[in-house]
Fold this sequence. Notes:
By secondary structure, the chain is of the alpha+beta class. Helices cover 55% and strands 16% of the residues. It has 2 domains: 26-93; 97-175. Strand 4 (137-139) and strand 5 form a beta hairpin. Helix 1 (9-69) runs antiparallel to helix 2.
Amino acid sequence: MELRAPDTPHSIIHQLLAAQNQERREHLDAARRVADVHRARYRMLAVGAANALHDLRGFLAANERALRGAGLSAEVDGLAAVARRFDRDVGRAEVELVDPSGRAYPEVEGEELAEVVHAPDTADESRLIVLRAIRPAVKLPGGELAQRAQILLVERESEQHEQHEQHEQHETGPRREGGNKA
């Protein structure tokens, strides 16, 4: 049996501090893992709520007049109230929905907010505008992009064509579907 010299007070203190530091690191790692799980859940909830709000807004914008005409005003008002609550709660959570509809594509592309689902064949991207966002971009607090928007692009009509249409409408009045005049 081998005899060993007793540990010095300095080495005992060093061993205790090393054990405490290891335990502290283990607790910090466990806390980081829990925080990461909660962050992922928050991200999923924020993206899901943002997509639902975007869909609800789109539904109301596209169908409100027809639904009210069919005698469903109370239901439309109820859906509009739900949309306002969603909007308020998403705002309180500091989640930002970015719908780039109507914006010039080069501006949207520069911000890296969107992925293009459809674009017309054109060599001049500066003429493209966002027709519609199928889903919005979602930014979390601090500006982190949780979801890129999915967008449809169209080519902006030439200024000459737009001026011709405006001149024609001025002379003949606004057009209705089917080419009927007002």
